[in-house]
TrEMBL record:
GO biological process: L-arginine biosynthetic process via ornithine
UniProt keyword Cytoplasm, yes or no: yes
Gene field: argH
Enzyme class: lyase
Similarity comment text for this entry: Belongs to the lyase 1 family. Argininosuccinate lyase subfamily.
UniProt protein name: Argininosuccinate lyase
Coiled coil (UniProt feature): none
Pfam families registered for this protein in UniProt: ASL_C2, Lyase_1
Cell location: Cytoplasm
Domain Fumarate lyase N-terminal: 8-302
Gene source species: Oceanibaculum pacificum
Pathways per UniProt: Amino-acid biosynthesis; L-arginine biosynthesis; L-arginine from L-ornithine and carbamoyl phosphate: step 3/3
Predominant cellular place of this UniProt entry's protein: cytoplasm
HAMAP family associated with the record: Arg_succ_lyase
Catalytic activity: 2-(N(omega)-L-arginino)succinate = fumarate + L-arginine
Length: 459
């Protein structure tokens, strides 16, 4: 059969396998709203500049609205023979309004059309991720306020380091997700330029108004170079890179939840709604959602790599390779969406086991730094010497099988005779966290102040 899309010089249609490798409709139909919205903006501009008549323009606009309705009602038949979303919409427009449909593509190419559709789609994905991350931050702030003075061991190297609070730990993630949101905002600002009107690659001889379509579609301005406009996908990579970093943060939190849920830690309990049982071991409460957030982060990171690799060897300008941008972009959007939602649900429902966290803080001499600081502050001993004396006291406690706070004053004085009983006030874990009042420190009042600030920011 003759090819209906590029007609003229072809005598046969594509081989079946050609159609299969070439068609993108199975996935790019997700961009129908962006495609129709972009076409309407283009049509309004063609009317305003007198490139097409009002009468043809009105027909095109109403036909596009009808198609939007059909797709949303699930009544639209997508055809692989028509390759992609752009041609599917245009072919249907021809069925509905007749030859006037052929005027929509004046001064436009699928190259600037697809660049526009993807940009609009990614911009929506950025906005969605921002809203979702804000919601996750709110859930973390709620837990931070609830557990502002719940003591837990702070770790480095997964070795007990110093006591912190669970609230402080939650707030650390609030900051990470804030930077993820900021990276998404940066990406949005950079991507918010319109490629429409670049046409195939070189611009057009028609008197189009690119500023008009840019403004109509909510862009800050048209892109300044037509070759760049159709050739680059860095805006999508910006989004995916920000998403990959967010996925990495989600994965770290997920990993912590997995550890904290274990019988050996018992720091947190996920709600029934976010736990799964075992078909053989009745005692099990598995953190599957957390494990899957951790596991699925690989898809996001992989998709970023996929598109980088697709793009890196392409000469200017458009190459069909670039059709491969969509599936990784969609993968990132879907995975991030799911992972943020699942994480928000887990955090919102999570209860911390205050008693277990406190007990876990005791072994490991978590207040050794407090002792060294006390020696500096009370006896004016240089920190390096205080560190050494504290090391000897830790050794004594270890030999005796007790915490340093449980050593007798006499034992301590073997290491440093000037130590007085006042030191014990400093060695309790609550006193330890309460003393960390430096800006950004773990003292409960600091944590509450940060949580309050964030609650106001998040509204
Ligand atoms: N489906 C194509 C894509 O996603 C649309 C652009 C086609 N342009 C072209 N010159 N073949 O990239």
């Amino acid at each position: 059969a003759e090819n209906t899309m590029w007609g003229g010089r072809y005598t046969t249609g594509p081989a079946e396998i050609m159609e299969k490798i070439n068609a993108s409709i199975d996935f790019d139909k997700r961009m129908y709203a962006q495609d129709i919205g972009g076409s309407k903006a283009h049509c309004r501009m063609l009317m305003a500049t007198g490139i097409i008549t009002q009468a043809d323009g009105e027909k095109i606009l109403s036909g596009l609205d009808q198609i939007l309705g059909e797709i949303e009602a699930g009544q639209f038949t997508f055809k692989r023979a028509l390759e992609d979303i752009h041609m599917n919409v245009e072919a249907r427009l021809t069925e509905i309004i007749g030859p006037a449909a052929g005027r929509l593509h004046t001064a436009r190419s699928r190259n600037d059309q697809v660049a526009l559709d993807v940009r609009l789609w990614v911009r929506d994905a950025v906005d969605r991720a921002d809203v979702q991350l804000a919601d996750l931050q709110s859930a973390l702030v709620e837990r931070a306020e609830e557990y502002a003075d719940a003591v837990m061991p702070g770790f480095t190297h997964l070795q007990t380091a110093q006591p912190v609070t669970f609230g402080h730990h939650m707030m650390a993630y609030v900051e990470m997700f804030a930077r993820d949101r900021s990276r998404l905002q940066d990406a949005r600002r950079r991507m918010n330029e319109s490629p429409l009107g670049a046409a195939a690659l070189a611009g057009t001889s028609f008197p189009i108004d690119r500023h008009m379509t840019a403004q109509d579609l909510g862009f800050d301005r048209p892109m300044a170079n037509s070759l760049d406009a159709v050739a680059d996908r860095d805006f999508a990579l910006d989004y995916m890179a920000a998403a990959a970093i967010a996925a990495m943060h989600l994965s770290r939190l997920a990993e912590e939840i997995v550890i904290w849920c274990s019988a050996q830690f018992r720091f947190v309990r996920l709600s029934d709604a976010f736990s799964t049982g075992s078909s053989i071991m009745p005692q099990k409460r598995n953190p599957d959602a957390a494990e899957l957030v951790r596991g699925k982060s690989g898809r996001v990171i992989g998709a970023l790599n996929t598109l980088l690799i697709v793009m890196k060897g392409l000469p200017m300008t458009y190459g069909k390779d670039m059709q491969e941008d969509k599936e990784p972009i969609f993968m990132v959007r879907d995975t991030l969406d799911l992972c943020i939602s699942a994480m928000t649900g887990m955090v919102r429902d999570l209860t911390a086991n205050v008693q277990s966290m406190r007990e876990a803080t005791l072994p490991g001499f978590a207040t050794a730094t407090d002792l060294a600081d006390w020696l500096v502050q009370t006896l004016d001993i240089p920190f390096r010497d205080a560190h050494h004396i504290t090391g000897r006291i830790v050794k004594l406690a270890e030999d005796q099988g007790v915490d340093i706070s449980e050593l007798s004053l006499e034992r301590m004085q073997e290491a440093e005779p000037r130590i007085t009983g006042a030191v014990f006030e400093r060695l309790g874990i609550d006193n330890s966290v309460r003393s960390r009042v430096s800006y950004g420190g773990t003292a409960p009042d600091q944590v509450r102040a940060q949580a309050k600030r964030w609650r106001e920011v998040l509204g």
